[in-house]
Amino acid sequence: MAQSFRLPEGGVIDRSKSLRFSFDGRSYEGHPGDTLASALLANGVHLVGRSFKYHRPRGIFSAGAEEPNALVQLGEDPRTDPNQRATQVELFDGLTAMPQHCWPSLEFDLNETASLASRFLPSGFYYKTFMWPNWKLFEGPIRHAAGLGRAPRLPDPDRYDKTYAHCDLLVVGGGPAGLAAALAAGRRGARVLLVEQDSTLGGHLLSSPDSEIDGQPAAEWVEAARAELESLPEVRVLTRSTCFAYYDHNFLGVLEKVTDHYAPYSRPQHLPRQRMWKVRAAQVVLASGAIERPPVFRDNDRPGIMLASAASAYLRRWGVKPGGRALVLTNNDSGYRAALDLKNAGVDLAAVIDLRLAAEGPLSAQARDEGIPIRSGHAVTGTQGHLRLRKAFVAPMDGEGRRVFGGGEPIECDLLAVSGGWNPTVHLFCQSKGSLEWDEQLACFRPARSMQRNQAVVGGANGTFALGEALREAHAAGLQAAEAAGFAGSGSERQAPRAGGEGDFLPLREIYLVPSIQPVGQGGKHFVDQQHDVAASDLLLALREGYRSIEHVKRYTTTGMATDQGKTSNVNAIGIVAEHLGKPVPEVGVTTFRPPYTAVTFGAFAGRDVDGLLDPERTTPMHGWHQAQGAAFEDVGQWKRAWYYPRPGEDMHTAVAREVKATRDSLGILDATTLGKIEVRGPDAARFLDLVYTNMFSTLKVGRCRYGLMLKEDGMVFDDGVTSRLAEDRFLMTTTTGGAANVLDWLEEWLQTEWPEMKVYLTSVTEQWATMTISGPKAKALLGEVSDLKLDSETFPHMSFAEGRVAGVKARVFRISFTGEMSFEINVPARYGLAVWETLIRAGAKYAITPYGTEAMHVLRAEKGFIIVGQETDGSVTPLDLGMNWIVSKKKPDFLGRRSLFRPDMQKPDRKQLVGIETEDGREVLPEGAQLVESNGAARPPVPMVGHVTSSYWSPNCGKAIALALVKGGQARMGQRLYAPLADRTVACTITEPVFFDKAGERLHG
Amino acid sequence: MVEDFLRQSPLSHLGLATHARAEIAADDGVALAERPFRTVITLRGPGGEGAFASAVEQASGLKLPQEVGAITGEAEGRQLLCLGPDEWWLCDGNSDAESLLVALEDELAGQFASAVDTSDNWFALEISGPQATDLLAKACPLDLHPRSFPAGRCARSLLSKAPMTLQKLDESPRFRIHVRRSFADYAWRWLSDAGREYGVSVLSA
Amino acid sequence: MLLIDCPHCGPRSETEFSYGGEAHIARPLDPAALSDAEWADYVFLRDNPKGLIRERWMHAHGCRRWFNVARDTVTYEILTVYPMGAEPPDLPERRYP
Which NCBIfam families is this protein grouped with (chain C) (predicted)? Predict the structure, then answer.
């Protein structure tokens, strides 16, 4: 019975080609142009899934983005996507889809017993029931029963793209209104971007191809519009592209599905799977249409029950009969469109059940003329049929629409097309913080006030449902947007497209909750949110329990919180709450709309910023050399720094110990390129540095260097580094690797905002220079051999700099030390970095020159008790806490952060202060971050923490473990014993001075 | 100069020369080329037509552009880029930084101004080809449409996560990008990956 | 995402900017003369108005200049931009419930 529900003709499908696909393990055929939903319906498949909570059989409810039920798992790991709406999945050859959320099978789901126990599963049931002894005990089985599809287990093999886009006008929606707006603006030369979520343009015209626009059938008008837009050079049309988010200042997110509609074997490999467009639009026209609202009646969720507009769409757009014998339930005139379409397609139409007291309106009249049986003032009081609708019960209502008379007459049917009015698709408008007003006549929320400049909402999205009026409104909005973007009219422009009033659905009778023969909650369920299995009885329970705010009712019942975000349920929930509270709908108000409109895969958000492109990996000119030496790398900010250089058979510990020892014994070399470097120039440079450093720089002589400490205004250490005076009005400041950008910004901020009169210019030169530090007893000998510099301590003392040639290249050399050994920091222009480095390595071979990485650097400086900003400090440490009073000028009346040092809290003796720590065992290296306490483990918790370890290493030069720590009142605790409680033991240790090696500092001088 | 034999581009590890072409391949939508070793001197000084502007003009032979985003000079030779109200780049494809610096220092003597050699701080590459704008739009939040960013303009912005200085050299279009030297590898890989859907030719430096 | 009209570069995406908090907080000329409370007020305390705020931004990935912005914290509308050191423009306060 291949495609036995396909009509012999009609629809925008290519009947000359067949596509094979499988659903739930069974094979079917469809045509290009089909969605998975239309192809399933063509094959008579209505049952496509089970519901979230009660595992009730569910079918295809809609024909678009609003679909609450027909969610499928598409494809196979690793190319699998859960929660895909069958109504939006384009069919391709070889498509495989599985129902979600049923076990062991779709037809026989054991968890359906939940449905029998449903009276025990009301809102808040989980909150109330599974609290004791704790939720964890119940989580496993409950999660197994609930959930929505499976995430892929394997890494995503696909590629995703992201791009910025700018336009004069973004039009969201490629229906008649969107096309009219885009044409109006595009013809004037404006840059227009039109996005349409569907695979093709036309919007609802695809389901009414014989409506007339400008005297043409709609299908022809759409085709002409498409062709014209394509011919305009500044217009871009994106189909399969959903505008899912609307942020401030007309910044919008669009997800384009680039290759999802191809069969996997034919997907063009050079194209990304999906593309995220980050659009900045001068003007936005929202023409996002409207979504039909279903009435809420008892057992309204069976397969075979669908929106009336969906029934029309399947008939007209896809040439599919959505059922064999149909019933229509409506409270407005648009339900009759489906009735007429069904009848014309030869579907046996039992009747139209009209909730209105009288069937009034142009379509009702037409239906009556065509002999369609109409029962006005009637309700559907319930339905039957397990895996597919079999019958509906129909009964007359009272005048109020509150109750029905009699037990209900059964009517056999396998399709129930329903309409409860229309909701403008205001999601994007509301995301952009626009506010809504309730339209009494149309019984819907429509846009009232924009929060964004340069925004218009047109057509169905604006509550303008009649086609002709929508086209006029959209045309005008397009012209206005063009005008505002600077594209004036020529005077000989085309008029707005003309059409009739098709789309009007008034009059409408406002009934949200259709009465049944028993009170709500008894004998069946009135589903409001089908995806989350929230019934009207749950809303009423929430109200009985005292919830009043619609936001609270929403969260308690989870109505509207499923993946469809309540597209077909929110207004019904609001209406039912309003009715029950006896309040007008606008007083209940709406819940907040948040992005995304429809789900966006994480891959699209990530784009190509994954794996090796996740974040910039900044490398130094010597990076390749480090790699060739087998160096392990450490991330320091975005930089890749050589961490240590293991030789064959060495682990990190041995390699670092060797590097540390070699440096003190003979000679080490470090790539220090990443240190921040800023040229500070101008007549006020010295005065400026005096204000930003805690110590004095105006007294620094030309040619000399000085270590400096910077504080934030709160008195906390912010950065440190050595600054050298290149000339009277020129300094070269160095910063920490991680702090380089922050320090430059910090200095610029003060110069521009607070001290604009200061004559100082800053230039970052961090990467102008490749920097290599040679350190150790043989440093001077090596430098002497490869440079033309005079290195005697008279001409080139510690803390000074010189310019000369190193390895034939012009260099700036600084004699400064972070290891305590005699050290020279050689700076050459980056392009020569590798050449000079290699020369030093070659020439240093006789001294067993040893490249050392950042870990050895950390050990060497810790042996000397030198701090590292960010390791010993964490934004809450002052220079006094570090025992660095010596660097805080007593003479300067002011510098940044100075005043804070005099706040009483800064003076407290029990502040955490920097100390050294040695373990009593001597060999035990404490973990960094270890807490320190005063008792040895016998004390009962809570045990007061008195400090923590900030740095901790094995020191081969001291032959013992050393550590730095911040300890409360530490400077007064020298020699005291503390304990470090670890996971499996407690380590006894002693507080010491934070200098472990060469306390006199003699080695600096060789 | 002996130093020329010692110098290295930050992309030397990619061995680009081995598959570089003189022109973009017929099927490719974009072409990438590195432009290493160009001179970039960062100038800071007061804007306006004062002593600073004349000193720079004397030393460089180019008028100092006053509007942020404006360029004077010639793309392949010497250029002045206005990057901020008191910040310019003096770029040169031929002369070395040292001689230019000497000339600038001479002319600027006694003024409150700064000229710093930042040639090695930056790395230049060029994007050209019919889809060059589409490629760049993936990485850069600027509006690159000729109406908003015509040839002969420059701007600082972002290339994905790397800060960049962008120039549009012509409407073919061809763009020149400067990123910090340490971002060279990242920028090249990012653009090569993003250009895959158009086809990427590598042009010789 | 905001579109900020940099006084030097024109409208640019928020991505290119960094935020500098409330504007017109002058650093005290003689910090030593301030009481602890006055100093703490300068260092730590900032307004958080619902409505009009005057704040500082820096075009970090552009001209690197600081400037002031008057913005509505409810609508995010940028009312005006003006240079550092300029007197704040006279704008009507915006009141929201």
Answer: soxD
CB contact set of B205 (below 8 Å; sequence gap of 6+):
B9, B16, B17, B20, B33, B34, B35, B36
Under 8 Å CB pairs connecting chains A and C tally to 60
Same structural domain for residues A221 and A253? yes
Question: For chain A, how many structural domains are there in total?
Answer: 6
Write down the ipTM of this complex.
Answer: 0.98
Q: Is residue A776 a contact partner of residue A664, using CB atoms and an 8 Å limit?
A: yes
Distance in Å, alpha carbon of C30 to nearest chain A alpha carbon: 8
Domains and CATH numbers, chain B: 7-37+120-203 (3.30.1360.120), 39-117 (3.30.70.1520)
Considering only CB atoms, which residues of chain A are within 8 Å of chain C? 247-251, 280, 433, 451, 453, 713-714, 745, 748-749, 752-754, 756, 893-894, 898-900, 902-904
Q: Tell me the chain C residues in contact with residue A251 when contact means C-beta distances shorter than 8 Å.
A: 1, 3, 13
- Residue A232 has which token pair? 């305009």
Tokens 């340069």 correspond to what residue?
Answer: A454
One domain for residues A285 and A299: no
* Closest to C67 in 3D by CA, of C17, C21, C7, C16: C7
pLDDT digits (tens, 9 = 90+) for A768-806: 999 999 999 999 999 999 999 999 999 999 999 999 999
Please indicate whether, in this complex, the C-beta atoms of B158 and C65 are within 8 angstroms of each other.
no
How far apart CA B116 and CA B40 sit, in angstroms, is 9
* Domain match, A302 and A225 both: no
Regarding whether A440 and A364 lie in a shared domain, the answer is: no
Q: What is the pLDDT of residues A52-89, one digit of tens each?
A: 888 899 999 999 999 999 999 999 989 999 999 999 99
Domain total for chain C?
A: 1
Range of the domain at C73: 3-27+39-83
Do A123 and A7 lie in one domain? The reply is: yes
Listed residues A432, A462, A484: the one ending a domain: A484
Predicted model pTM = 0.95
| Subunits close to A (at least 3 CB pairs below 8 A) | B, C
Residues spanned by the domain of A449: 160-290+424-484
Contact yes or no for C61 and B156 at CB 8 A: yes
Instruction: Kindly state whether C33 is in contact with chain A, defined as any CB-CB distance less than 8 angstroms.
Output: no
Query: Sign of dihedral through CA atoms B138, B140, B143, B147?
Result: negative
8 Å CB contact of C2 and A433: no
Per DSSP (E only), the strands in A128-175 are: 160-172
